[in-house]
Amino acid sequence: GLTAAVSRDKITGEITLEGGALVLADMGICCIDEFDKMEEADRTAIHEVMEQQTVSIAKAGVTTTLNARTSILAAANPIYGRYNKRYSPSENINLPAALLSRFDLMFLLLDVPNVEYDTNLANHVTHVHRYK
Prior knowledge:
This protein has 132 residues and is an alpha+beta fold. The chain is 32% helix and 23% strand. The protein is built from five helices and six strands.
């Protein structure tokens, strides 16, 4: 997961705490794809990481705070498969504005439909894979 997991060691029976992606990326960068499909609990955890640079854990009797001083690079898709320029980024990718405001930079990569260009690109890709 993104934050941490508490598990019981099968041999010793001790409870162990394993850091998730955000904790393991401490002092580095954590890349998250499908950011728009994330569960609400993970969104809350990311909000804490981006605000306080820590992950708070309270599971199975283990209560602690772990460092997560990481940069987050996230990618998300529009909710209906195409970006609608009449709506805000928050409405297009169905994420709360409070969470999106935590990002320093936001880039919109728009795929403008163009039949001729798309056909040429598809022909090129299939040609390259057919004649390796």
